[in-house]
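Example 9 (inverse folding). The structure is encoded as follows.
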């Protein structure tokens, strides 16, 4: 691109100088990089330090928006294989993301080693979600032409929903005397809520259906730790010992859906169900008794990076959609659309 340079004597001289990419200001470079998806964008950060800082700024903004889930809702399905067609899905409320700050000066820790992959350092950002039986309400607020009057129904303080106590999300598993473990099926998706209950405008898969094995010994240890924690709380004692035994607040308490990737993990509180028997049952000395447990899904941890990638994949699919559809159905045929009489057809020769 030729640039016109004015000399000291006032004469204009043309200097054939080419404008390079690194000569552009950061605002123009950011505007160009914003159009690139996150996964290929992370490879561009290896160009130089300047591009690394710009890419990390874009990734930070995208992670914050993806964690808030402004236009999307996270739903999970967690059920025993025998309850596949009867156990409903549940929504999840966002609680926060440890290590992710909305401050503009915050920078994500991205591993730059070639063997680490493009976003291995970002896998540690796990968003905290709470499964809930409550369905998000679709609220349509209409402002009054004259403005909001204090105390009216259009006032923001009066129209905002109030938090209320909710029932926990509980799943039940039973173990026969010969069974050493039970199974849970788990899947997670992002949805856009439609105008009516149960209607979704879009769906993006975050984690496909996985099988979680829960062993008998682990269930027994968690149930005993829960009883010990309740006993200490009733006597108003410190529960530090119970927390150490139950690994509360650490990664050991999480039941990972996939141990290899650790994309999603569940925090489960186990309680043993007491069987009521009217008549005694004779058991062998070496025979294990049939047991039942209630599993309370207290919290869900999901990788924010995978939430972001799922949203971007869905947006790319929507942009590449042609808008054409094939509709199957039985429709009445009008008199004008009936097939013509063969005698009325003229032969053109």
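The amino acid assigned to each position is listed next.
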């Amino acid at each position: 691109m030729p640039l016109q340079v004015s000399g000291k004597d006032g004469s204009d001289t043309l200097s054939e100088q080419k404008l390079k990419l690194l000569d552009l200001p950061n605002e123009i470079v950011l505007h160009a990089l914003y159009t690139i998806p996150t996964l290929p964008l992370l490879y561009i950060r290896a160009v130089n330090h300047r591009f690394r800082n710009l890419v990390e700024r874009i990734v930070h903004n995208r992670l914050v928006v993806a964690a808030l889930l402004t236009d999307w809702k996270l739903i999970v399905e967690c059920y025993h294989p025998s309850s596949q067609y009867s156990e409903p899905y549940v929504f999840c409320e966002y609680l926060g993301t440890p290590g992710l700050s909305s401050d503009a000066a915050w920078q994500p820790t991205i591993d730059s080693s070639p063997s680490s992959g493009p976003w291995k350092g970002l896998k540690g950002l796990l968003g905290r979600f709470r499964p809930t039986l409550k369905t998000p309400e679709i609220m349509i607020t209409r402002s009054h032409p004259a403005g909001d009057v204090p105390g009216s129904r259009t006032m923001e303080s009066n129209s905002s929903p109030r938090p209320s106590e909710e029932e926990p999300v509980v799943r039940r598993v039973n173990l026969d005397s010969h069974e050493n473990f039970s199974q849970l099926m788990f899947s997670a998706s992002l949805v856009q809520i439609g105008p009516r209950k149960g209607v979704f405008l879009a769906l993006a898969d975050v984690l496909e259906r996985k099988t979680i094995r829960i062993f008998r010994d682990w269930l027994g240890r968690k149930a005993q730790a829960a009883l010990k924690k309740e006993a200490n709380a009733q006597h108003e004692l410190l529960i530090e010992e119970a927390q150490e035994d139950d690994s509360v607040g650490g990664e050991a308490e999480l039941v990972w859906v996939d141990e290899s990737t650790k994309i999603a993990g569940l925090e489960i509180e186990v309680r043993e169900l007491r069987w009521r028997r009217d008549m005694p049952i004779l058991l062998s000395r070496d025979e294990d008794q049939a047991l039942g447990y209630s599993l309370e899904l207290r919290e869900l941890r999901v990788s924010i990076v995978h939430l972001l990638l799922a949203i971007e994949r869905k947006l790319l699919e929507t942009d590449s959609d042609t808008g054409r559809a094939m509709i199957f159905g039985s429709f009445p045929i009008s008199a004008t659309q009936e097939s013509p009489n063969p005698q009325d057809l003229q032969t053109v020769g």
